[in-house]
Amino acid sequence: MTLTPRRLHFANPTCELDLDWRALSAIELVAPDTFQTSFISTRGQQATTRVQTPWASLAFVVAAITAFPAHPRLLSRGWLPSDFEQRCALLGRPCRPAAQLTAERRAH
Fold it and tell me: What is the DSSP annotation of 2-38?
């Protein structure tokens, strides 16, 4: 799996998935390790897929910032566990509040 600010590319011996964030029609974090997205396939048909990965929250937030900056879960920080920032600080890796990060991204 390759995750960038522009897309997610997933490949294994039996399937391949290439999602350009700007081409999505919807995205939702359906579980801590799973996101679901809708898009127009290369055949021109509406498609929906679920991707299960430890990186689901990161993929969700990168896609939402790019394609859905007003997504309610993004704005409410609903994509992070409620104690995420506190756990980072306890591990010696303090981070800026997630709400501030998304607000800064939208301002650019």
Answer: EE-SSEEEEEETTEEEEEEGGGEEEEEEEETTEEEEE
pLDDT (tens digit per residue) in 40-80? 887 888 999 999 988 888 899 899 999 999 989 888 877 77
DSSP run (H or E) holding 103? helix 98-107
Whole-prediction pTM: 0.73
For every residue of 40-83, DSSP letters joined together read E-TTS-EEEEEEE-TTHHHHHHHHHHHH-TT-HHHHTTTTS-TT
